[in-house]
Amino acid sequence: MASSRPTLADVAAAAGVSVSTASLAFSGAGPIAATTKDRVLAAATALDYSGPNPLGRQLRSGRSGIVGVLIGDQLRRSFRDPVSIQMLDGLASTLGPLGFGVLLIPGAADQPPAHLDPLVESAVMDVAVLICGATADDANLATLRRRGIPVISVEGEPLEGVIEVGIEDRVGAAELGRHVQGLGHERIAIVSLPFDWQRRSGVATPARLAEIRWEIPRRRLAGLTDAGIVPVAVYETPASLVEHGKAAGHALLAGPDRPTAIIAQSDLLASGVVLAARELGLRVPQDVSVAGFDGLDLPWLAPDVLTSVSQPLAEKGAVIGRAVQALMSGELPGPETLGMTLQVGTTTGPPPAH
Amino acid sequence: MASSRPTLADVAAAAGVSVSTASLAFSGAGPIAATTKDRVLAAATALDYSGPNPLGRQLRSGRSGIVGVLIGDQLRRSFRDPVSIQMLDGLASTLGPLGFGVLLIPGAADQPPAHLDPLVESAVMDVAVLICGATADDANLATLRRRGIPVISVEGEPLEGVIEVGIEDRVGAAELGRHVQGLGHERIAIVSLPFDWQRRSGVATPARLAEIRWEIPRRRLAGLTDAGIVPVAVYETPASLVEHGKAAGHALLAGPDRPTAIIAQSDLLASGVVLAARELGLRVPQDVSVAGFDGLDLPWLAPDVLTSVSQPLAEKGAVIGRAVQALMSGELPGPETLGMTLQVGTTTGPPPAH
DNA sequence: GTGAAAGCGCTAACAA
DNA sequence: TTGTTAGCGCTTTCAC
Lengths: 354, 354
Fold this sequence. Notes:
The structure is a homodimer.
Chain A: H1 8-15, H2 19-27, H3 34-47, H4 54-61, E1 66-70, H5 75-78, H6 82-95, E2 101-105, H7 118-122, E3 127-130, H8 139-147, E4 151-154, E5 162-167, H9 169-182, E6 188-192, E7 202-203, H10 206-209, H11 215-226, E8 233-236, H12 242-254, E9 261-264, H13 267-279, E10 289-291, E11 308-310, H14 313-328, E12 336-338, E13 341-343
Parallel strand pairs in A: 1-2, 1-3, 3-4, 4-5, 5-12, 6-8, 6-9, 9-10
Antiparallel strand pairs in A: 7-8, 11-13
Helix pairs in contact in A: 1-2, 1-3, 2-3, 6-14, 9-11, 12-13
Chain A binds a DNA duplex through helix 2 and helix 4.
């Protein structure tokens, strides 16, 4: 007679069994007579009961089956980057069959690290994944720790009690750097990912270069330094988007002493540089070589194929998914680092003879 | 002394007050002396208590603050479509400040409508949003109904007990059709969004045309028919992606009696057609006019600007967000339909003189 | 202004 | 194999 949704108790009453027996009929976790089970299921159908309320189950088990993914940026911007998308797809595809759902937690636009997203404080989740390189001063991280939620950090700095999933980007950057240098380039410029939440745009001063806060640009820059590259300029961009790469390309290639090679820290930035070069009437790679980072498939850049170091994006998502599973099984997964592969395309070649 | 996380009861005990009083200290919903409140909060800090456990709150209130978004496709594919992304961004931006989180529920690759996603059955959510046009035979929809979860359907067919959010795409398509016809075109081909989950590729036979299952291609086709267009060919694509538009463009423009105008049901498809035309050495719009649908900003198509009918994507997300809010306030929001605007670009012009 | 008590819907010991 | 009992952590009447 309940006017609201039927509960397990209603079903049990209708079937003439106890609530715990009815529970067994649904969970299957325990011995139950086939006839009893059928009776319960029949009663459920009769009452239009749609199975145990997950809220009750969650409170009891302390598990929600939800993995919070902190994007660390607006969805709009993150989702324009195939790097995020492909990893998220790999993650969701791994998590789905395991019964986990992905809760999106977008970051506010451009906030200092002290900024705390309300969902981080209030949303139910079993595990949190920080997909954009956590730093120690991150307020979200502090809150997650206080809540006792295990944290997986992607390409972040090593942090106490945080499970790391990363890529060999320093090594990859070094390999890319050696490739470009090996071609004979001496005037090499770098287009960098944002240094911090301020997301500035322009050639970085030495002072600014000394205060790169985010790990990813720092590691990739370090890799190029490892290769012995001393860049003629490092151009900081506000986000890994084609238009910012284009702006950087125009700025770097317009002057008189233009670099003979430009290495960008992402393929999206690199493709913007290629577009800028084309607009300036420069041939790639005859007049200027361009290299990227990530190994994306960018058919619209045709006929050019970007020289890049590729990272296994879907695999990265899958690794995170498996780490989530391990955590939920009570294990403590160790850090994982995935390799990168140099892919030489058509956009790098010897410097122009002068 | 609890080895696990402290609970409200622990905090209350430490502060020397009752659990109900401690609850008031956090919720603020009720009269409480400032000194008592301070004492509770101090005890919480001392115990490293991070606020009321949302699971308990949820069970009590019956609310989870989670909005399930059924993507109806792989994330990988959906997220390559700016139409989905921009709407999702609008939705998440509206929902975030209201305290709701977005739970992503990707669809399996290419499944018949009988396919049921496990998360649809098991995940906690207050409202479900079907972002890709629900049909009556959808198993997910049936399950959501059985679970008593309110459903918002985006651009779907009108369904009993489902809140509709749509766009005037039939009207928009008609307007676009009249624009193209007004230029003098008589041989017009259409590149269509997928007809159903089979996602076939190629020119549709009359039989195939009669069995379009998904609402969006059907409505947009109907709009063109409203404008009096009798297409020389309708090319069905497996997804709204540039590469499929390119394939369609090649197929339609390669033959001897090529159309003088191609109308695509999405901008991504249309831009693929433009690329195909360029590859075939055809000038747009002198040799062939191309029009799209959605009104995306596609800078990489430069110098061309696509003629299209634009839909307010972020606004669509915001409308859904407000509908969610209304539902959670106990109201029953009515259906909403957003208008579209014809935007004439550089890709349409008069047909070539023969 | 504060506390006692009764659940929200479910599961997991344990007992029968 | 089934039923009894006791919570999971919280909020919310309703007394005091």
